[in-house]
Design brief:
The protein is an alpha/beta fold. It is built from eleven helices and eight strands. The chain starts with a strand and ends with a helix.
C-alpha cells in the first residue's frame, strides 16, 4: 500500500495499528532497496507496521531546485511528518547510507520520538567525521565526496559512458534489475536532487551529539565507503544500549546483499528498544 505524505510516497506493509518501523533508503537507491528485508520482517512478526518512503530528491514530485531544501533539518522534518501521518508518536528507525546519517541525526536531536535505531553502513556522524579528518583509509574511500558535491561534475562523472560509474557504485552486489531501475531514475531527473543531499551538508553533521536510544550499527567488512577505523569508533558516540554487528565479506549494500542478517539485526534492536 502507498500513502502520500505531502509530495512523498510512503510505502506501507503490515497492520495499521502495528508497531511503527520507518526504513530510510540511501544514495542512489529508493524504497525498493528494502523489499528483501521487509519480506523477512513480515515473515518473522505480524505486529509491525513497516513504512519506507521514497525520499526528497528521489520522489518525482519532491525535487526542489534549491540546494538548501536538502539540508538535514528539512530531511528530518520529512521523516517526522511521515511518523505524524501514521499517528506514531514514537517509532523504530532503520536507515542505510544517507538514511543512516539521517537516522543518527534524528536519534540525537529527537530522542523522544525514536524508540530504537538500526544504522547500516554509516556510523555515528561524529565517528565518520573523525575518520575523514584522521584516517588515511577513510580519506581514500571518501574521495568521491568532492566529486558529488561539485555541481555538474558529479552528474557528468556518474552518467557519462552509459552511466558506467553509477553502475560501478553497486559493485555487482545489487540485482541487475534494481540497478537498471536506479539508473533510469537518475537519468530521468533524480540525480541532481539526490546529490543535493551531499551539497547541502555542513559541519554540523560531524558535531552530531551522542545518542541515548538503543542502537545497532551494522557494517560490512568490505564496505567501499566506510573504513574500519570509522566503524570501530561508532560505539563511542552511543550512550544507550549498543551493539556493533560486523558482516564478514559484505559490502556497502547490506540490505540487498545480506537481508537475512539485516532483518535479524532490526528485530533484535526493536526487541531491545521497546517491544510494544
Amino acid at each position: 500500500m502507498e500513502r502520500p505524505v505531502g509530495t512523498l510516497p510512503l510505502h506501507l506493509w503490515g497492520p495499521d495499528d502495528g508497531i511503527p518501523v520507518l526504513l530510510l533508503h540511501g544514495f542512489p537507491q529508493t524504497s525498493r532497496s528494502w523489499h528483501a528485508v521487509v519480506d523477512r520482517l513480515l515473515a518473522a512478526r505480524d505486529d509491525l507496521l513497516l513504512a519506507a518512503p521514497d525520499q526528497r530528491g528521489y520522489a518525482p514530485d519532491a525535487r526542489p531546485d534549491d540546494v538548501a531544501a536538502y539540508a538535514i533539518g528539512e530531511l528530518t522534518d520529512d521523516v517526522l511528518a511521515m511518523a505524524d501521518a501514521l499517528g506514531a508518536g514514537t517509532f523504530h528507525l532503520v536507515g542505510h547510507d544517507w538514511g543512516a546519517s539521517l537516522g543518527w541525526h534524528l536519534a540525537a536531536h529527537h530522542a523522544e520520538r525514536v524508540r530504537s535505531l538500526t544504522a547500516l553502513s554509516i556510523p555515528h556522524l561524529a565517528a565518520y567525521g573523525w575518520a575523514i579528518r584522521h584516517d588515511p583509509e577513510q580519506q581514500r574511500l571518501g574521495s568521491y565526496l568532492r566529486v558529488f558535491r561539485t555541481p555538474g561534475h558529479g552528474e557528468t562523472a556518474l552518467l557519462q559512458h552509459d552511466a558506467r560509474r553509477l553502475r560501478e557504485i553497486y559493485d555487482g552486489r545489487v540485482s541487475a534489475e534494481d540497478v537498471e531501475a536506479y539508473v533510469e531514475l537518475m537519468r530521468d531527473g533524480a540525480l541532481t536532487p539526490a546529490l543535493g543531499w551531499y551539497r547541502a551538508m555542513g559541519g554540523e553533521l560531524a558535531r552530531t551529539p551522542a545518542v541515548d536510544v538503543a542502537t545497532t550499527y551494522v557494517w560490512g567488512s568490505q564496505d567501499q565507503a566506510v573504513s574500519r577505523a570509522a566503524s570501530d569508533r561508532c560505539g563511542e558516540f552511543v550512550r544507550g544500549a549498543f551493539r556493533h554487528v560486523e558482516l564478514g565479506g559484505a559490502s556497502h549494500w547490506t540490505p540487498d546483499e545480506r537481508p537475512d542478517d539485516v532483518a535479524r539485526a532490526v528485530l533484535e534492536t526493536i526487541a531491545r528498544g521497546c517491544p510494544g
